[in-house]
Amino acid sequence: MKGVIVCPQPRAADVGAAILNRGGTAFDAVLATAFAQMVCDPFMCGVGGMGSLQYFRAADGAHGMIDFHARAGAKVRPDMWTADFKGRSEISGYTLFEDQRGELGYTAIMTPGTVRGFAAFHAQFCKMGWAELLAPAAAMARTGFAITPFYRDFLTRKPQPGLPTGLERVKKTAASAALFLNAKGAIHEVGEHFVNPDMARTIERIAKAGPEDFYVGELGQAIAADLAANGSYITAEDLKNYRVRPGKPVIGSYRGFEVASNPPPGSGAVLIAMLNILENFDLGRCPPGSADHLDLVARAMGAAHLDREKWLGDPDFADVPVAEMISKERAAMWAGEIRKGWLPGNRKGEPPSCTTHLSVMDAAGNAVSVTHTLGTGAGVVTPGLGFQYNNAMKLFDPIPGRKNSMEPGKARTTGMVPTMLLKGGRPCMVVGAPGGSVIISSVLTSIINIIDFGMSAVEGVSFPRIHCEGGPVFCEARVQEDVVAELARRGHEVRHSPISYDPQMSRAHVIWRPEGGRWQGGADPRGGGGVAWAW
Fold first, then answer.
1. 50-57 vs 62-68, strand pairing mode
2. C-beta of residue 285 within 8 angstroms of C-beta of residue 309
3. Is 355 a catalytic residue?
4. How open is the CA angle 147-148-149, to the nearest 5 degrees?
5. Annotated catalytic residue: which of 355, 356, 382, 413?
6. SS3 (DSSP) at 458
């Protein structure tokens, strides 16, 4: 066994397996797969996006993070949207404006970090050349791929009140409509063949001229000129001065495993806080899927989200008390409140954003967990470049003076939690998910399903799921009706989805190698899902 790749896009996973079979490492496979994801799932991620990556190098035990969060442009001002702010969408927490300025168009874009993020990763860890690893993605863009059900579903599902439809998103700019609509001017049907020669040329240029071309070269000049001409807050200097943030993961523990996840403004501390709270209860004695099980998990989710709302922000701009957030003492306090009957209050849940994830391990013990995203995509394509930009501005707080208020150069908070569990100092689980704050719930439940209930990786990501951010408890249709009724009887406000495998519950992707056992790969069945093995 040379390794395993798990991600939502089967054809992208195949690219990573091919790299491993050619003698590449997990690090090489990650880079090639990530760029393939940008081609075949262009509303989930892209060169105009952002992300968070955790790595472990077996040879020397190097273990750290490379964060490449999008940053607010130099023209942003903390109070510039305050007067026009109309609140947040009913169940999404996205900022609402009559003109959709935070969702669509050039005003929604923040300085992209994806290319420099993966370039920094390549320089430090990859064995194979940059151009060689980008070549499969360029070839896929040029020859094309079949539209998947999840690709179409994302653009055709009914949006939350106050948010644009997928068609409105795609048609926001003429270049976007020309690229992403078919010859009939409609969203592509499942199975239609989609080619993107502009994207192929962009990737080929980044491969040949190097990643810096995206920021200061010919590509960077074209990007800066287009943004400047259309009212973006990003300047050429913002592109030039963008820097990734290397650092250490946030470290916690759960039932004898070391848990490593990403630092603020990511939500790794929030995930660890939830696990800490649940460690105070003998969760494994509850029947899986029972009211006792889901009640405890929902309360732990809600409690940790209250701390997230109060404390999480960009540590370059605000004091984030990570040590307190993940302390066992804080968890014991919340466990005590839960035992006294504490229930989540009147908060709103957040459905998934436009994100993807990738987990990779190889036979040498190298491991990577990386989540990268576009937000939900601004509907902006620079003519001739073949990719759309992020719409990260929609998750800033438009009220000045708060932890997550907008400021030039600042990253907004994110639900991304690329995570590893380690035993004896070596990774045994690599896990992550796409989907806004629902990512945290998805990763949490996958971990406890495997560790507390002894499920396999496939069972862990497939089991009926709930989500709570301190308000309603959202349950998939497969959560039994009598369990839903019992949760309501205990005081929860419950929303029971009619969908059995609801894509709004996020899509967890796990690699799990139990002590003395065989490798397992689990791809979430809620949309897409690819597991590729290299033998």
1. antiparallel
2. no
3. yes
4. 130
5. 355
6. helix
How far, CA to CA in Å, does 152 sit from each of 10, 172, 204, 380?
A: 16, 17, 27, 18
Using DSSP, state whether 137 is helix, strand or coil.
helix
- Cα dihedral sign, 144-197-17-511: negative
24 vs 469: CA distance, rounded Å: 40
Which structure tokens are listed for 420? 């590893």
Q: Spell out the alpha helix ranges (H) of 7-96.
A: 10-21, 26-40
And the tokens for 266?
A: 């990511």
- The DSSP line for 321-344 is -HHHHT-HHHHHHHHHHHHTT---
Instruction: Determine the length of the chain.
Output: 535
Whether the per-residue pLDDT at 1 is higher than 90: the answer is no
Cβ–Cβ under 8 Å, residues 416 and 488: no
Closest to 262 (Cα-Cα) out of 480, 9, 477, 55:
55
State which H helix or E strand residue 184 sits in: none
In whole angstroms, what is the distance from residue 51 CA to residue 37 CA?
13
Concatenated DSSP letters for 280-298? Answer: TS-GGGSPTTSHHHHHHHH
CB 286 within 8 A of CB 293: yes
Joined tokens for residue 441 = 């719930």
Q: Is the dihedral of CA 416, 371, 235, 101 positive or negative?
A: negative
Q: Could you tell me which of 367, 375, 269, 361 has the C-alpha nearest to residue 315?
A: 269
Q: How many CB atoms lie within 10 A of CB 121?
A: 22
Rounded to whole angstroms, how far apart are CA atoms 197 and 276?
A: 48
User: Quick one: which of 424, 423, 445, 442 has its CA closest to 432?
Assistant: 442
Q: What is the pLDDT of residues 306-345, one digit of tens each?
A: 999 899 999 999 999 999 999 999 999 999 999 999 998 7
pLDDT value, residue 93? 66
User: How distant, in Å, are the alpha carbons of 301, 351, 434 from that of 484?
Assistant: 17, 20, 26
User: Which residues have C-beta within 8 Å of that of residue 115, sequence separation ≥ 6?
Assistant: 47, 206, 211, 214, 215
Q: How far apart are CA 432 and CA 491, in angstroms?
A: 31
Span 449-470, pLDDT tens digits: 999 999 999 999 999 999 998 8
CA 351 to chain centre: 12
Give the CA distances from residue 288 to residues 5, 284, 475, 501, 522, in Å, rounded to whole numbers and listed in that order: 28, 8, 14, 17, 18
**Cis peptide before 315, with omega less than 30 degrees from 0?**
no
User: 522 with 460: CB under 8 angstroms?
Assistant: yes
Pairing of strands 3-7, 530-534: antiparallel
